Amino acid sequence: MAVYAWTVCACLSLLIGGYYMKKSGLLFKLGFPIGYFLYAKTSLGYFYHQKRVKKRPASSAPHSKVEPVAVDDSIVIYPVPYLEDNYAYLVVNEKTKRAVAVDPAHHAVLLGALEKYGVTLVGVLVTHKHWDHAGGNYELRKTFPHVPIYGGRKDLPAGTTHFVDPGVDIFIEEMNFHAIWTPGHTVGHIVYFLKSTTPPCLFSGDHLFIGGCGKIFEDNPEVMFQSLQAIKELPSDTLIFPGHEYSWSNLQFALIFDPHNVNVQKKLDNIKKLRLKRQATAPAVLSEELQYNPFLRTDSVALKETLKLKANVSQVDVLRKLRQEKDKFKAAA
Ligand SMILES: [Zn+2]
């Protein structure tokens, strides 16, 4: 069994690694869907995730330095970095010292964060089925058998105890998380909108990043476009907490296709300063995100011009082209 597992892990590494190296040959085109299926939809992906976790144990240096974000008088959000660029979050009611965790896929890192901040885990929210977000669920159930783990009914993240439907409100520790269905990255991706705080907060998983959006793995640009429109309808003061630290790459990309946008340049300068010190870049404010994130600005005439698209193409076409370009893009280190 061990030999089999390692063989599978090696194959997955090659296939997924190939994707990230942006290969475009026939072998890749044939191999990637198989590799993706094995990773996302079978327990073989879990072996691969565990291998990654072992390579980045809780004792290793985190990818970013983080600070707690006090949202209002009682709620504080603690970013929890793990693996190469993932973030989980602890949403803590400081009055009761009880916490809801978002996407805690590295069990040992989560346990360390709970101890460090002196909080008790009372709920878990999982944005989607990819193992780097849901891969902690099995161990969570063993360590915290009475803690509910919420995940989308369409995505069915492994280890989930409570499946949620779009539009459902989840109440935990005087906090109200509204589940918004955002298909595109996966068919059942959910973002969690914490609407009981002022300002409200959005845990956006792999749907929306600072300056970017998730790869469209399981749907098409039309669907992703509608999911991004749902974000634009949220209150403009919403704080966005994404699932990965991708801001530096995303803003470099944004500047290429929106070179005269002063908001892009300003944000890029800000991100550069933070990343030179290895500091986390989240959260972002939605009102600002609308000014520099090209994936939320598909109505921009300037973007159409730099993408060499005709003036009458649809916003979905702009999103499709942007996503194609981003998938090929290599950021400076
Ligand atoms: Zn994902």
Description of the structure:
This protein is 40% helix and 20% strand. The protein contains 12 helices and 15 strands. It has helices spanning 2-20, 26-41, 44-55, 107-117, 131-134, 137-143, 221-232, 247-257, 262-276, 286-292, 301-306, 315-328, and strands spanning 69-70, 75-82, 86-93, 98-102, 120-125, 149-152, 162-164, 169-172, 175-181, 190-194, 201-205, 208-209, 212-213, 239-242, 284-285. The strands form 3 sheets. Strands 1-2-3-4-5-6-7 form a 7-stranded mixed sheet, covered by helices on one side. Strand 2 (75-82) and strand 3 (86-93) form a beta hairpin. The longest helix is centred in the first third of the chain and has 19 residues, at 2-20. It is globular, with a radius of gyration of 19 Å. The N and C termini lie far apart (39 Å). Zinc ion is lined by residues 128, 130, 185, 206. Zinc ion (ZN) binds next to loops. GO terms for molecular function: hydroxyacylglutathione hydrolase activity; metal ion binding.
